[in-house]
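Students often ask what a holo structure prediction actually looks like on paper. The answer is less mysterious than it sounds. You provide the chain, you provide the ligand, and the output is a string of discrete structure tokens encoding the 3D arrangement of the protein together with FE2/S2 (inorganic) cluster.
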Amino acid sequence: MITLLVNSALHKLDIDPATPLLYALRNDLSLNGAKFGCGLGQCGACTVLVDHEPVYACLTPVAALEGRPILTIEGLAENDKPSPLQQAFIDEQAAQCGYCTAGMVMRAQALLDHNSIPTEAEIRAYMEPNLCRCGTQVRVVRAIRRASQPAREAAEASLPR
Amino acid sequence: MTCRHPAEAGPSRRGFLAGGGALIVSFSLLPRFAAAQAAGQTGPALPGSLAKFPMLDSWVRIDANGAITVFTGKAELGQGIKTALIQLAAEELIVTTEAIDLVTADTARTPDEGYTAGSHSMQDSGTAIRNAAAQARALLIDAAATRLQVPGDKLRAENGMVIAEDGRQLRYGELVGDQILHVQASPQSVFVDPSRYRFIGKPVPRVDIPAKVTGGIAFIQDMRLPNMAHARLVRPPSYGATLSRLDTAAVEHLPGVIKIVRDGSYLAVIAEQEYQAIVAMRALETAAHWDEKPGLPDSATLFDTLAGLPAQQVPVRDDPIAIPPNARIVEASYRRAYHMHGSIGPSCAIGLSENGALTVWTHAQGVFPLRAALTELTGLPRDKVRCIHVQGSGCYGHNGADDAGADAALLALALPGRPVRVQWMREQEHIWEPYGSAMLTKARAALSPEHQIIAWDYTVRSSTHATRPGGAGNLMPAWYREKPLTQPVPKPLPLPEGGGHRNAAPIYTIPSARVMYEFMPAMPLRVSALRGLGAYMNVFSIESFMDELAQAAGLDPVDFRLNHLSDPRAREVVTRAAERFGWLGFSRTPGTGRGFGFARYKNLAAYLAVAVEVAVDRESGQVRMVRAAAAVDSGEAVNPDGIANQIEGSILQSASWTLYESVAFDRTRIASRDWSSYPIMRFPAVPDRIEVQVVERPGEPFLGTGEAAQGPTAAAVANAVADAIGVRLRDIPLSPAQVKAAIGV
Amino acid sequence: MRLLRFGLCFAVLLLVAAAFFVVLSRQPVIAGVEAPPRSAFDQTLIEKGAKLAAIGNCYSCHTTRGKADYSGSRAIPTPFGTIFSANITPAPGTGIGRWPEEAFRRAMREGISRRGEHLFPAFPYDHYARLTDDDLHALYAFLMTRTPVESFTPRNALPFPLNKRWPLAFWNVAFLDKTPFQPNPQQSDAWNRGAYLVAGLGHCGDCHTPRNLFSAEESSRPLEGGAESEGWVGPALNTASPAPVPWDEAHLFTYLRHGWADQHGAAAGPMQPVVTALARADDADIHAMATYLAAQQGPVSTERQQRASAALARAAEVKPPAPAAGEELGATIFAGACASCHTGSAAMVPPHGINLALSSALYQPEPTNAIQFVLRGVQPSGERSGPLMPRFADTFTDAQMAALLRYLRAHYATAPPWHSLESKIRDLRQRKGPL
Ligand code: FES
Ligand code: FES
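The corresponding structure tokens follow.
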């Protein structure tokens, strides 16, 4: 029996402890956000946060997750309202097929958690592990910048005049 | 305690089968000839897909409670078609977009609009739906006029109601009683006046995006039906390999394994849980022994091999050519490697065989052609096979989707009564998808002393760009069964759209031209439709060559193009892209360059011009696209931001193909098996910005756009690289090795 | 701790010696010249220089990401502090634009700048001392024809007295061997060429030879394995090589050419840029280096032969080894995180990684490289094809990673357990650099 702490809720699962988190999320918990893209840690479609850091759910056995908080894209929204980052993706229409999108959002969330005002270069470097074949990257960068805008403005406002 | 909720949050099977009852075969869905026969009449050509399905209620239905359902035979592939079609219907029916329920490709419910491909959806389905909706509105107003005893022009439609000047109103639902929409469409419709547009031409947010950023159910990969089993395949390691030895004993007893399916060299395993299926698949892989043959060409001499293959000559344009002695002759030849679709999500399908009927949920681009193929593959009667489109990962053409549909069908038949979900592994998608064909082109032109092109001679050589199923012989799983089917010998696609010769004819004003398509029936690597088909390579070649000619003429490449363009719409996109880019004021720093590319897709769809800036790293030879500015004329732009989004994506994808990608192989196997061996563009290489201007053309017919930027971008990149390094590169991809060899040290 | 002791020892000795060497440390300034024009150099000479520069991998240390090629300023971490690389573009103000060839030769062979200052031996002039005049001439031609870019080099961040240059004179007298390369007539041309490149321009010993108290390579133990640098350990390339299957010429060639070799693994850490640079070297030179390095493995003893066969047999096993009691977590992690790439196929073809029974990193006396592979993976370099392994730094805790590595060490390498694995993981996790 494995206990997972997903989006602040505890779940007990009776599955092979070697099962990668991705399958547990999708099939046992019906959380569809994380996607199977490669199963090899090469594309980032499965990205979720563990201990507030982005990991590849396709290569994270549930045995390694006892007691560690897991955050998926389903856990970002508050009171059914998209989170500011999700809203920024919607505002920028930063998706085409959208298969890579949830992974993008999760990695971007980790970036903003660590660095609320990332530069363009920092965004690109941080997002490097995630692939998009539809070519939405320019919009993804824009969405991340948009989400960081309030923090950027706050920082500017607090500068001595 | 176990707390597994198999499909709690997932949709129910009923949900997915909704509409599968009475509506399955309705009169409205008989194709035109049958319907016309039934109605005993023939008429002038109807617009878009109405020509094939002329009954209004094939496209628009309104229930007594007022619910509006719109049907399209096209599928959402991530291109945003759903949103655009809803905008059109809502505009013409004068309702909100939320009031429209759109049903996409389903062999049991929607018109057969063939494939969702070739940038046709707006032209075919958009036109049909818009006309049907406009005519439905007119019929509703007529019905209200009769009921209220007022002339029709004293009535207006608004928000699902017909309203009279005196304030009396009738809801649409109250008006549809006598099947008033079950009538033939007429050739003419009265559209809402552009000045009153509420949705057309507005950047309406895509309806599918919220689910995609919040983890909602958006993809076939997310569908979980009750009691669903999971399958994984064990594919041959190379084309034509046969399964020589297999000991399944150790696999049969692995946890969760329900069944090992073997049919000749076709091998799969079905298990209770997905991860169990994967573990069993891995075990089965090591238990399987294959006989392989070296059947691939030598990749080092690929293009020599291709040049020597037998080909059928297909003339595209054949003017008599006379070259005056004072003309300047310019010649060049270009080559393009095999490219992958490279969908981020590997192909997936779900099959259910129940009571003698087979249902397959698929992300194939053509559910009707797939149904035909599955009918042939399984031997089931046509009315016992239903294919329902559910969105998958972006496909950009014919990827593994249809084959996965065939897998689901075969595995569902092996396990009747339970839905069987199958998803390919990454390496299976990489190895087995049909690629975009490698191609060769040759161009020769004569320039007059006035720097005008007076003669043009162009040849393109390619394998086919269409091996989509229609017949089961094009389904890869069929090749490996005990009784295998062989792939039919392909034929060249007809013009004007064409396959390898799509866009082979130059759109420029050239008095005499000869254009030949050398169609190779052989396909050393499995190939089929990839975004743009031959247009990608033809436009790359023609537009690279235009730059070479401009250089020979000593003219600015944009001016040189304008000197050969008479169509004002073409001239407009060229001028606009150049202006937005800042073509004239461009300052070239060391290692950077600017390049231009233009085409009218298929010479009959959207016009697109793009200018790009690249930066070349001299040390490594790596090229990066720094920025791009494009202008597009898609006719009436229903959703300008949707168009911009697609074009941006197309520009990035084309840049990735052109700069970084080629399928690697040895004599036996495909070596590009994952993202490490088939790298694509990553974030740091993504341009700083892409600007897309959408030309406004209210009232003009829709012009297909989704693939329009593939060719112009490739050429613009190559032209920019030539501008940056002073040497012309003619082989795609413009690899660092090629760049290094060109610039020396 | 050990590093600190070295540092102190070094410092004290240097202070004592200082007085004696102040005088000796003075070196003449060589007068600056106008930078020679490109036409001063033959094109084939420049091309030869480019290939040599690839083998020397000048680029890696002398280029900062995002800045002009060869314009220097890259921070080089050393055990004593940070050193910044010089601008070696022919910029007259901040680069080497005013350097006559004589000055360039002296810098390469003796570690002395045109102005007569001592260069820090992070710049491996102790290796370049082997170079022939001809090759130095070609390198000079190559560098003097780069795009000149003025760029100041930041001050080195070193503690006193290491920040002083005069003590280096002492170091040079003690450790710098200026004898040019001597070919061995008993050996083939390829062997000799390889020896010359490995000992000279390739400066392989920089990472793969142990160093003494004064941070100089121990000339009596060439290629016997280096200490940790940049968080990785350069394994022994001679008879002491930890590789379970002895390296041969063919595998060395593939490794140096493509960055990975069946039976050994992928180039990672500081070796990755070396391979990237080598992409521009000639096949013949890479074959030569492979020939020489293969010869350093010595004749393969029966014992090594047996070890190799045993490792190959383990690699051929289809199923991962069964864990012993207490090792279950490691085996489970392997099954869920590693198995999709590292089992199923003994051959290392994408997406299959190496079978770990053959991975050199697991056989090394120190766990450093094995830990780094798991922590950082092997990251793609741009849009080039090559080995790719995801990083697991955030996926696993120190204890989980230690459990995994213990299991791998015991069953794939069948070697005695590593000591203080967990604290080593903690330590390496904290290192700077992309995680
Ligand atoms: S699916 Fe996990 S990284 Fe691709
Ligand atoms: S939106 Fe389709 S892969 Fe990124």
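Helices of chain A lie at 21-28, 84-91, 101-114, 120-127, 137-157.
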